[in-house]
Amino acid sequence: MKRIMNVYESVRVAIRISFLGFVLIAFGFLIQNESVNIFYTFRNVFILMLAEGCLQLGRAIIINLPLIFMLNIVCKRANSAYPVCLGIVGYFAFLISTSLFAPTTLGSTAYSTGLGINSIFNMTGNSVRYPLELGLITSFLVGYIVRFCFIRSRHRSTLSILGFLNKDTAGLIYTIVLCTLCGIGASYVWPIAYTYIQKLITYIAADIHDPIRIGLYGVMDRTLSMFSLGNIIRQPFWYTSLGGSLQTISGTSIIGDVNIWAYAKEIVVNYEGAGRFVTPYYVINIFMIPFSILGTFLSINEKGARKKLLFGLAGTAFISIVCGNPLPFE
User: Fold this and answer.
1) Is the distance from CB of 100 to CB of 93 less than 8 angstroms?
2) How do residues 248-258 score in pLDDT, each as one tens digit?
3) Which helix or strand (DSSP H or E) is residue 253 part of?
4) For 19-43, what is each residue's pLDDT tens digit?
5) How far is it, in rounded angstroms, from Cα 80 to Cα 87?
6) What is the rounded distance in angstroms from the CA atom of residue 123 to the CA atom of residue 106?
7) Where would you tag: which of 25, 171, 233, 291 has the fewest CB atoms within 10 A of its CB?
8) Distance, CA of 123 to CA of 22 (rounded, Å)
């Protein structure tokens, strides 16, 4: 438990930043989405521009959450900005090494395009290669490598291989080498894990009416989401034929659970099982998260603390009900 609390202390600020990202997304969504603006629709261009800015900033925070977590980890125990610089270099070294050594035959959800890193080098021919998407796994790997390299560089001997360099330069070289090697290792290990995840996805898709398989989907979804990898399992079921298909009267084929659910809702069609992969989030966001917040609030005995947290917790519950923000709580 003590080790878990130490890890939590290392990433607590990053969790708060992720929550802020969801708040910004919620603010932009509430103003821009006409289906939410039941009582009043904003038309002022400046308000809409502000909403768009908040929405894009929130999305940028969530997309780059692994980088934020990693920076928070490396600077936690050092009263210096230098580990942050090491962390940025190490993070890019890790991603670049995965873009060079990882196979290109994995699904689209296995790769990251968020930071614009790509390479056209390929020993078998030219093709665009992207870094692997490992979510928060990258954050913890690079973060602890950087912390190790920083401490090692502070206590290195002048008789070591890099003894002729100063401490900062030696730490930088240590970081680049170890993060690159770690990225190469991840390029061979992660595709194996990704392949097994795809096999589980195929197993679930073989019978999406089976409650046991739907339960397995839920376990995988929440587990992967805690590592910021939820898109691996959501994208196939939400937007491809693995989530089901529906033939309209006009002959158009609608695939993906989200698309089928939206279509059935719009034309008021009773399609059995529509939204089976989406609607559980309503239970989580409308009931589980708000009542978890309520339980936390009621567990506080000090009246002053209750008054202090009342507005913030109430606003958090409201955002969860309207837009959803389960990740920071998890």
Assistant:
1) no
2) 777 777 888 88
3) strand 253-255
4) 888 888 888 877 877 666 555 667 7
5) 12
6) 17
7) 291
8) 41
